[in-house]
């Protein structure tokens, strides 16, 4: 590797590490918001019988990975000020609530195939409502961080 290439790679790493905390938080919120929205859509498609359990299960699994990546990415960034620490706590807590709602959805989906379950079970409705509440919370954070649509 040439010295110029090595210097470029190192400079890109420093730029990524020096991203403002609010920008990193906004990225995590955007990623989580997308994952939660996709999860809500997946459950809605299941309820309307426009998607089957395996497809919805795969979608929820993928979105759980997205939420985990968003949380880990934010945990890797150390807030420097009291204001940033407050924002860090607030966003982390919102991401944990989203992960909890998604775990509830995945559990409800698994129980759907039990003898008493179907796509309209209370557990799936509760999970969808928890995800919708999480989506609303994340959208509020997006608006505050200036990344809302």
**What proportion of the residues form beta strands (DSSP E)?**
under 5%
Mean pLDDT: 86
Distance between the termini: 42 Å
Major sheet size, sense and barrel closure: none
CATH A-level architecture? Up-down Bundle
Portion of residues in helices? over 70%
Give a short summary of the structure.
With 149 residues, the protein is mainly alpha-helical.
Structure explained in plain terms:
It is built from 5 helices and no strands. It has 149 residues and is mainly α. The chain has one domain (21-144): Up-down Bundle (Four Helix Bundle (Hemerythrin (Met), subunit A)). Helix 2 (21-47) runs parallel beside helix 4, helix 2 runs antiparallel to helix 5 (122-144) and helix 4 runs antiparallel to helix 5. The longest helix has 31 residues, at 82-112. The radius of gyration is 18 Å and the shape is elongated. The termini are far apart.
């Amino acid at each position: 590797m040439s010295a110029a290439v090595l210097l470029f790679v190192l400079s890109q790493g420093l730029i990524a590490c020096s991203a403002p905390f609010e920008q990193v938080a906004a990225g995590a919120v955007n990623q989580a918001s997308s994952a939660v929205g996709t999860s809500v859509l997946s459950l809605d498609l299941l309820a309307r019988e426009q998607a089957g359990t395996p497809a919805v299960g795969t979608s929820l699994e993928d979105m759980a990975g997205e939420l985990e990546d968003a949380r880990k990415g934010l945990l890797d960034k150390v807030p420097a000020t009291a204001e940033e620490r407050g924002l860090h706590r607030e966003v982390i807590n919102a991401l944990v609530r989203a992960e909890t709602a998604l775990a509830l959805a995945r559990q409800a989906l698994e129980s759907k195939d039990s003898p008493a379950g179907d796509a309209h079970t209370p557990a799936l409705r509760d999970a969808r409502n928890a995800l919708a509440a999480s989506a609303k919370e994340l959208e509020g954070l997006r608006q505050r961080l200036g990344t809302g649509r």
